[in-house]
Every structure is written in structure tokens, then in C-alpha cells.
Amino acid sequence: MRWGSRLLVLGVLASLVPVLVLRWIDPPASAFMIRQAIASARLGQRPPADRYQWVDWGQIPASLKRAAIASEDQRFFTHLGLDPIEIRAALRRYWQGGRLRGASTISQQTAKNLFLWPGSGWGRKLLEGWLALLIELVWPKERILEVYLNIAQFGPATYGVEAASRRYFNCLAAALTAEQAALLIGVLPAPGHHQPDRPSESLQRRAWWILKQSRRLGGFSELPALKTVRKQARCALPAPNAERIRL
Q: What pTM, to 2 d.p., does this model score?
């Protein structure tokens, strides 16, 4: 019992310290980036030149923040890291014979991308949930969304909204239009299968749905955390077929 208690305390401290540090320090990399570099090294390949450039909260447009919430976690501002409504719905579908679908919140995805590894095992999901709760206790909602949008993978070796904006639309993240923001967020379930600058019909349909859901969230006065400090000029060179989303 004594050793078990010590291990438990040690485990809590080991998970709490990095969460506390990253509350104020921007992460130089994520576990997913490091994993990709290690996998390339094991194969004797040169690690890919990761496209990753941090951008502060004030340089992320409000339309992009709102699109992320509309697409990934519409109860982001009301839960504490885990969404019991989505968890119950996912379990109900599974018990009725359906496929077990993920019910991850933005906080859980941040914890997974930053600290853990891909997969669907129960052990990893429990660890992800614990880290998400810690993040919610230590970080404000703005910080969670800021880190999530900076480390999410948007394409091969492309992490974060700034790198994705420069790669696919040849502009800063602050200059994205609402349509381009929806296309970027639309690739997050499967970043290796879609290109925002050359969107397939399925990606265009998803981006249109994200725009529709974003409008349902209401004005920015109803989402006080979604304030952009400074907005630069719009993209000067929008990619083909990406400026307007066909219905």
C-alpha cells in the first residue's frame, strides 16, 4: 500500500509538472512530431522537415477558432475536459451494435497530440482523459484552443494553423477567409487524405457544414473568449477552388 501510494503520487506529479510548465511556455514540439521523426530514423530515412511555426492567440482569426469549436467540440466552453453527453451517445451506439466512435473533446485531442500516441486502447484513453482534466484545471480555455490549433496535424509533416496556412494558401493564418478556415478545420479527422487547397467534394461538403454550424454558435459577444487582437490583410493568393465552397 505504501509503495502504491508513492507511485500514485509520483505519477500525478509527473503528469502535473509538464502541464504546469506548458501553461506559460509554448511547446517546441509535440509527441506526434517526435514520433514521426523517430519512425523515420528507425527506417534509416532522413526525418521530414516538419512545417511547424507557433502563432500567438491574437494572430489566429476568430473565424478559425469558431470553426474549430463548431467542428470538433461545440460544448467546449461548458465541459471540464470530458463531454458526458457525447460519451453516453457513443456508448449507446456501441451497445446497439454500431462502431465505437470517438467522443474526444478539444481538450482530449490537445492532451493526445501533445503528450501521447495514436491509438484506441482503453489504457491510452484513460491517460488521455486524466491529462485532459489536468489541462482544464490548469489552463484557461483560450490557452487550450491556442495550443490545439498550433499542434494539430493538417497534412504530411504540417503542424499548426500557421504552417498549414502558408503551405496551402500562401498566407499568414491571420489572413485566412472564413471559407479557407473551414477547409483547414475540415481536414482534421483525416489530415493525410485531404488537401485544403484542392478540396474534394466530401471536404467541400464538410467545410460547408462547418460554416453552417459556426453561424449557429451566434455572435462573438456570445463567445467572449473568441477575440482576435490583430487582423492582417486577407490572403493575396488564394488557392484554386478554395475561396468559394460549392454546396
A: 0.84
